[in-house]
Amino acid sequence: MSTRTTGTNQPDTSRKGSLAALRGLLPFLAPYRRQFVLAGIALLFAAGATLAIPAAFKQMIDHGFGAAGGGAGSQSIQHVDAVFLALFGVAAVLAVATAARFFMVSWLGERVVADVRAAVYRHVVHQSPEFFETTRSGEVLSRLTTDTTLIQTVVGTSISLALRNTLLFLGGLVMLFVTSPKLSAIILGLLVLVVLPIVLFGRRVRKLSRDSQDRIADASAMAGEILNAMPTVQAFTHEGIESGRFTQSVDGAFQTAIRRIRARATLTMLAIVLVFGAIVFVLWLGAHAVLAGTMTGGDLGQFILYASIVAGSVGALSEVMGEAQRAAGATERLLELLAARSDIQDPAQPKQLPQRLENGARVAIENVSFSYPSRLETAALAHLSLDIRAGETVALVGPSGAGKTTLFQLLLRFYDPQSGSIRLDGVDIRDLSLHTLRGAIGIVPQDTVIFSTSALENIRYGRVDASDEEVIQVSKMAAAHEFIERLPQGYGSHLGERGVRLSGGQRQRIAIARALLKNPPLLLLDEATSALDAESERLVQRALEAAMVGRTTLIIAHRLSTVQRADRIIVLDEGRVVESGTHAELVAHGGVYAKLAVLQFQAHAPVDAHLG
To answer: Is residue 402 a contact partner of residue 575, using CB atoms and an 8 Å limit?
Structure first.
């Protein structure tokens, strides 16, 4: 799956030129100009040393071996000694410059990739829920790992090799013309003819590289989804089925990778055969020139070495081009993530909440209508209006799909309504920064999230600067202290991925303690006691009653024990308010709520029965 399909706010960059996407890395490279300059200096020294070697060999052949043949033995030996001494000096310069270049470009590769990963992750965590409805987390992880590794190869290796071989190609070409303009003109004309098919074939390599990365992302996304649902997979004995699906996905990625490798191998073969074929033809002409006496042996030796440098640099550039094209595809995918723009943004000039003069926050919902982006034809809320006083406890009841959880999501501004407004203490929540708004709200979700860390840090997630004593205090309020103390390392015990070492009720009490630690003026409880047994519910209910004092509380309630204690009960159906009042008033009214209450009493389980 590609985020090219996730919405109109994400541009399709797949039609860019083969390497155009790599320009997107420039903002990440810009802060490290100094390191690039140092690497460039080392690169120039290394390339210069390499290009000096053939000239040294020419001197040795013409003035050393040639002179020896003429009888000037002592002088030629001295000249050969000087040439070899100079050659060793050139090799030393080459070694130091190459080591410096390797260190600098490797450092740049690691640094830039770390910055890219951090930037992509920082951007993704600020996306709205709409983004995660259409983008699988496994795919995002694939882009953060596999794709950034390809970029690391380009920044840390390929760019350096490309510049080095470009310098060698240009320098070698200049020296070829200095050595023999006629042969150089012929070889240059032939190179122009052979490079064209190489460039055209390279485009196919890039497309296959992008396809290969997409297939790897698909496999990663599938694996992530199944591993997160392993108890369900095993409960339905689908281990074999899921293994087969993953194997099929991996095989698909393998086949795509093989097509890419085959294309790259063909490209490399084509480059080497065409380039070296042209060079061999020109050298054949040079050999005839030496035999005819129009060229010295030293000139031919120098020409051969420079031709080898030019040919080697062209071959290396074709290899680098293949890596760069793979990285271009990876860069496009990462840039798509960075280009994703959430519809939920901080206002240009955010307002502040007024100083709270009374306990809790006042919430005013005015004629709100909302449909989820993926289901625009169905209204989740329709012309909903509510006025919740500061310090009031309001219960929301109704059947599934009535709009209860949707209202919570709008209060947290995970989505914005299509019409109407929501005000917190008289301020439209769209005029508040997301940090200010969500900082004023605590939530205990129905699906409890436990992080793979200690019990202490899981609760402290509610307020990161809280002391250990404050964490223990709210744990006692949430009836979590006793079972945490019984864990092997107490509050230091790691709870496992997604809290697998805890029961459902224990996870929920951790979440309640986390919300209480935040101590917000507005508390949202989304079936906060749904996973608790009767005894735990009694303890937590008592804790919640204490926590509700001094704050406004909205409860999505399925249990009569919670509903009865609310100041007001709102009955929702199909996104509309159909009834409102206290428990006694609604029962006396004989409407929807009364029928639900009668069903509970008839079940003879007033605590455990469900209202909707």
So the answer is: yes
Which pLDDT tens digit goes with each residue over 216-241? Answer: 777 777 787 787 777 778 777 788 88
Q: What are phi and psi of 421, to 5 degrees?
A: -150, 160
**DSSP letter string over 552-601?**
EEEEE--SHHHHHT-SEEEEEETTEEEEEE-HHHHHHHTSHHHHHHHHHH
Residue whose pair of structure tokens reads 């030393």 in the numeric block: 92
Q: Please, which residues have CB within 8 angstroms of residue 62's CB and are 6 or more apart in sequence?
A: 296, 297, 298, 299
What is the chain's length?
A: 612
Residues of the chain with CATH 3.40.50.300: 447-519
* Strand (E) or helix (H) holding 287: helix 239-291
Whole-structure pTM value:
0.64
Reference 390, options 346, 438, 437, 356; nearest CA is 356
The pLDDT value recorded for residue 176 is 82
Residue 453 CA neighbour count, 13 Å, CB half: 9
19-339 to CATH, choices 3.30.565.60, 2.50.20.10, 3.40.50.300, 1.20.1560.10: 1.20.1560.10
Residue 360 Rama label (left phi>0; alpha psi -120 to 50; beta): left
- For tokens 């006083």, name the residue: 389
- The enclosing H or E element of 427 equals strand 427-428
Segments of the chain assigned to CATH 1.20.1560.10:
19-339
Tens digit of pLDDT for each residue in 122-152?
A: 888 888 777 776 676 667 777 777 777 777 7
Distance CA 53, CA 48 (A): 9
The CATH number of 447-519, from 3.40.50.300, 3.40.50.1010, 3.30.390.10, 3.30.420.40, is 3.40.50.300
pLDDT tens digit string along 63-113? 655 544 444 455 557 766 777 787 788 888 889 988 888 888 888 888 888
Q: Average pLDDT, stretch 48-74?
A: 66
- CA dist 160 and 35 (Å) reads 12
Contacts of 307 (CB under 8 A, 6+ apart): 172, 176, 187, 279, 282, 283
DSSP string over 201-233 = HHHHHHHHHHHHHHHHHHHHHHHHHHHHTHHHH
Does the pLDDT of residue 518 top 80, yes or no?
yes
pLDDT the model gives residue 525: 87
| Cα–Cα distance for residue pair 421/417, rounded to 1 Å | 7
Helix, strand, coil share of the chain (percent; to 5): 65, 10, 25
Closest CA to 2 of 258, 334, 376: 334
Residue 167 binned pLDDT confidence (cut-offs 50, 70, 90): confident
Number of neighbours of residue 150 by Cβ within 10 angstroms:
23
Q: Which two tokens stand for residue 606?
A: 């007033």
